[in-house]
Specification:
The model has no long low-confidence stretch (mean pLDDT about 90). The chain has one domain. By secondary structure, the chain is an all-alpha fold. Helix content is about 70%, strand content about 0%.
């Protein structure tokens, strides 16, 4: 495993320490890792829902220029937002 140092305002540090003190996590690192895992799962779930919605839509046209500029996923998300 590798390490990553982060800086937190005192209030957030106290919150993290409180979460660890609750007994659900052994260390602040375990708590932060769990938050990152949850965020990753949430983002993947959102992406999956957006892609499924795009597949089920009638027709989505995205120019090659737009894909080159923004990337495919970003371009599709932008189109989906405009349609909503």
């Amino acid at each position: 495993m590798t390490s990553l140092n982060i800086s937190l305002p005192e209030q957030l540090k106290a919150y993290v320490e409180g979460q660890v003190a609750s007994g659900d996590w052994g260390t602040p690192s375990e708590y932060i890792r769990e938050l990152i895992r949850q965020d990753k799962q949430r983002r993947l779930g959102n992406l999956e829902r957006e892609l499924l919605a795009g597949v089920q839509a009638r027709k989505v046209e995205v120019s090659a220029k737009e894909i080159r500029q923004k990337g495919l996923v970003t371009a599709l998300r932008a189109r989906a937002r405009r349609r909503a």
